[in-house]
UniProtKB/TrEMBL annotation:
Annotated family: Belongs to the iron/ascorbate-dependent oxidoreductase family.
Keywords attached to this entry: Iron, Metal-binding, Oxidoreductase
Domain Fe2OG dioxygenase: 192-292
Name of this protein: Fe2OG dioxygenase domain-containing protein
Pfam families referenced in this protein's UniProt entry, alphabetically: 2OG-FeII_Oxy, DIOX_N
Originating organism: Citrus clementina (Clementine)
GO molecular function, one term: oxidoreductase activity
PANTHER family associated with the record: OXOGLUTARATE/IRON-DEPENDENT DIOXYGENASE
């Protein structure tokens, strides 16, 4: 299997092969370079602050989910040494020989470990300037054998981030007016939640303006928690413009996923975001997607509904089926979420 890293490092590349040319909508490429920034949440105030501080933090989380669908988390307790080691070990994996990485190439969606390029090369009309490593890390833990120590780093990192996600979900539930443990009880998140680790590698590109790392899309699941190396490349769609995300050092970027939009019956909406590349440096991002057990049917929370004033806007769907729908088709906006909206006539994800 070919990969973008090998192409970028070949030493012969002066222009981008035409199969990577991404046709951008000029009306959709307005970037807001002003000082508007994603909300920042102090996690320590959620877990160890006074009752008043916790209340204010929950309100801030709710406002961030409502207005942005994204927020940045500081004072989260995940050691910087562990974060740095996760980035270094991820880079070392991509530095392995193609023969070593090929052991994980061409796998099926729910196979434990997959290494690949673009999004889905079987259906992508345009290839994306991205290599990836995807690992199902919970409830069953998996990891590559190489490089040495990578498995241990992944296990500790994902455990700490999963704990962070669980606390954030409690705060989000309270912001919706539900019990803090609502989602844990309704979806059995304490023991069987599904956690997917996605490591993205975006090598330098000789023509970064004509390619895309990942196109505008929303994420599956309840929450995605992301960190990156020192090179920015994430853009978030807000008020009709793209906002470049440059998080504070040591922070995490958190965004709500399609299944949080479903559960909240549309109050908290997943938001389009994209990954752009540059011509000088390799960007690495490490994302963990947090969702319910794969066979859980996710629909709007009953406590947020009534038949007359707040009818369900989404139909229930198994998390596994939603993943299959999204991951087996082209990555295009929020088309898969449209598939489960009530009274939507469009047949999406074709």
């Amino acid at each position: 299997m070919f990969c973008v890293k090998g192409l970028s490092e070949s030493g012969r590349l002066t222009s981008v092969p035409s199969k990577y040319f991404f046709e951008k909508d000029l009306n959709d490429d307005c970037i807001n370079s002003e000082a508007e920034t994603i909300p920042i949440i102090d996690f320590s105030m959620l877990t160890s602050g006074s009752p008043e501080q916790r209340y204010k933090t929950i309100q801030a989380i709710g406002n961030a989910c409502l207005k942005w669908g994204f927020f940045e988390v500081i004072n989260h307790g995940v050691p910087n040494t562990l974060r740095d080691e996760m980035i270094r070990a991820s880079e070392s994996f991509f530095d392995l020989s193609d023969e070593q990485k090929r052991e994980y190439a061409g796998k099926k969606l729910f196979d434990p470990i997959r290494w690949g390029t673009s999004f889905n090369v079987n259906v992508d009309k345009t290839l994306f300037w991205r290599d990836y490593l995807k690992i199902h890390v919970h409830p069953q833990f998996n990891a590559p054998q190489n490089p040495l120590g990578f498995s241990k780093t992944i296990q500790e990192y994902c455990k700490r981030v999963r704990e962070l996600a669980n606390e954030l979900l409690k705060g989000i539930m309270e912001s919706l007016g539900l019990e803090e443990s609502y989602i844990q009880k309704a979806m059995d998140l304490e023991t069987d939640s599904h956690q997917l680790l996605v490591v993205n590698l975006y090598p330098p590109c000789p023509q970064p303006e004509v390619v895309m790392g990942l196109p505008p899309h929303s994420d599956h699941g309840l929450l995605t928690i992301l960190m990156q190396n020192d090179h920015v490349g994430l853009h978030v769609r807000h008020d009709g413009k793209w906002i470049p995300v440059n998080p504070p050092p040591g922070s995490f970027v958190v965004n709500i996923g399609d299944h949080m939009e479903i559960l909240s019956n549309g109050k908290y909406k997943s938001v389009l975001h994209r990954a752009v590349v540059n011509g000088k440096a390799t960007r690495i991002s490490v994302a963990t997607a947090h969702g319910p057990p794969l066979d859980t049917v996710v629909g709007p929370a009953q406590d947020l509904l009534d038949n007359e004033n707040r009818p369900p806007l989404y139909r229930g769907i198994k998390y596994r089926e939603y993943l299959q729908l999204q991951q087996s088709n082209q990555l295009k906006g929020k088309s898969c979420l449209d598939h489960v909206k009530v009274n939507i006539n469009d047949t999406c994800c074709k």
